[in-house]
From TrEMBL:
Protein name (database record): FMN reductase
Coiled coil segments of this chain: none
Species for this entry: Reyranella soli
Domain Flavodoxin-like: residue ranges: 13-189
Names of required cofactors: FMN
Amino acid sequence: MQAIQMSAIPITVAVLFHSGFGHTARQAEAVRRGIERVAGASVLYLTSAEAQGRLDDLELADAIIFGAPTYMGSASGPFKTFMDSTSKAYARGAWKDKIAAGFTNSASRSGDKLATLTQFAIFAAQHCMHWVNLGLPAGNNSTHGSEQDLNRLGFWLGAASQSNADQGPDVAPPEADLLTAEHLGERVSIVTQQFVRGRLPAAEGLWSGMSREARHDRVRL
Ligand SMILES: Cc1cc2nc3c(=O)[nH]c(=O)nc-3n(C[C@H](O)[C@H](O)[C@H](O)COP(=O)(O)O)c2cc1C
């Protein structure tokens, strides 16, 4: 797919995820591809373990997309450990007004994935971030639908994917779910650029050539 040319406002979108066995990592890679389709967007790609040592870098991101497998009806334990490690950033309001979104993967069609997406949205709200939803209609919910539809699992809070329990990450999750994740990454990039553009004090030209750090200082509310 062609890169979107309408705006090249430089933004950084972090993809911050955990994956125990590689399935959610496939989804994270798809989110990354979607972000990179938008001109001007760059990606900070971190596992939740890496992110615990990169909190300063995360503060420079314009948006953070959270991802984890659903284990026992909630985000996986390692991802929750990361969430708890952000309490100092929370106390300082370090992520205030960043854009947020989320994705999760599990073995069952539902598998209580909504609980994980809700957990991410509440986590983002505690950090005073702005949550972006999936922005797709439901797929595969009529006689005209199919398993190839985007959003075939019918989630709106974020991107969901489903990986059969007896298949490895080489074949699961299926293509439709990866394309759904790509859509989320692209949507978050576009919304983030709209949001950053709305905070620009002057013409876009003013920002060209300015470092990400300098721009970040200028737009911080
Ligand atoms: C400890 C554990 C708990 C799980 N709990 C759920 C669950 O609540 N719902 C579900 O549908 N699948 C559940 N699964 C299946 C995983 O979500 C599924 O295998 C997923 O693809 C794993 O992603 P990963 O390879 O990124 O770790 C669980 C798996 C494990 C290991």
